[in-house]
Amino acid sequence: MAAQRLRAILGGEHFAPLSAAELPDGRDRSLANRLINTALRRQGQINLMIAELLDKGMPAKSGTFEAVLRLSLAQLVFLPDIGAHSALFLAVEATKRDAKARHLSGLMNAVLRRAQANSARYGLLEDDTLLPDIFRRKWETAYGADAVARFVDGLVDGAPLDITLKDEDPALVEALGGEKLIADSIRVETRDRPVDALPFYDDGRWWVQDVSSALPARLLTAKAGGNVLDLCAAPGGKTAQLSKAGYVVTALDSDGSRLERLKANMQRLGYEPTVIEADATSYIAAEPFDGILLDAPCSATGTFRRHPEVLWHRNAADIEGRVKLQQGIFARAVKNLAPGGSLVYCVCSLEPEEGEAIVDWALKAFHNLELHPVAPTELPGLEGAVTSGGLVRTLPSMAPNGVDGGMDGFFVARFRRAS
């Protein structure tokens, strides 16, 4: 099952851990997800191993062979506590089970025995191979080599669980085993149960939200009780924040299935936004909004601690296409914004083309729009994320309020419509 899931991800699907419905036994599920995660996080190093081990390259039309091989190399080299023997045995057995791969079971055995003999050397592969060159070089130029070295640490370690509280209650923080980050965000470093089994989840007293993702809604400055639009809203973390802030919220998204998830989240939390399924590039509101939060579709490269596959799924052409989409949605948002209204634009991307360059474009394209700079005092505990120009750029290397564990890479810019 781990091989089937990894194969789908290698083919371009979004990473989603195996669920209890798919693997009921918690031990099996934990092991399978650990193998998948390790294979994804170590993909750069595993690519080098495969290039050396398969002289003729990856066999064509070979079913799950590649996925099984990657899982087994991850286990052999990076998870020695599981045992080398099981890596070899289970790889051959899994290969034999797949009708499209079983003729390669002998090759699998031979390749993994060779890998086992070289496992100590493979374990010393440089960590900088974990990032594709296209991103590593760009990020070192934009953010510095030291920061990027800490990006790699975040990729290997993964992301802790960040939570936004509906009400700030020290007893709730203690019950969750959390540590305060900034504002109403806390971090749960370790847990022994699924998210929906944590204390007070069913009571709707908190929701999962990376600390960086919680920043944009806090920076919206619409008038008190005003009508605000949450564009590309699903699954609803920012919708919940805007509702908590007392705004009258309309949540819009083009994906009906994701909106169902948003509705379920709002019901659990006790919030009642207006929910609209529509295309954000063509939506026309009956009345303009006092504030708009645009969390634009993007490359999502800033989320690699939780979704390491994005590093290998994205390329320059993909990012260019997303920039055009971001500009289209932004232009429509400006038309739906009332004079004097607040517009917050954000992306969970580390790419300057999707962040700083969008600001430059917007200020040239819309003469009735002005930048509303963010002051460092608005983000106590994360002042270093505010640039000299009043933009917000969070990095996976940052420690909110000095707490280890990093955060997603995010970009936030705030505007005001002058007329």
TrEMBL record:
Pfam family, any one: Methyltr_RsmB-F
Residues annotated as the enzyme's active site: 348 (nucleophile)
Keyword terms of this UniProt record: Methyltransferase, RNA-binding, S-adenosyl-L-methionine, Transferase
Sequence intervals crossing the membrane: none
Domain SAM-dependent MTase RsmB/NOP-type, chain residue ranges per copy: 123-418
Keyword Cell inner membrane: no
Binding site for S-adenosyl-L-methionine: 232-238, 253, 279, 295
PROSITE patterns from the UniProt entry: SAM_MT_RSMB_NOP
Family in the record: Belongs to the class I-like SAM-binding methyltransferase superfamily. RsmB/NOP family.
Descriptive protein name: SAM-dependent MTase RsmB/NOP-type domain-containing protein
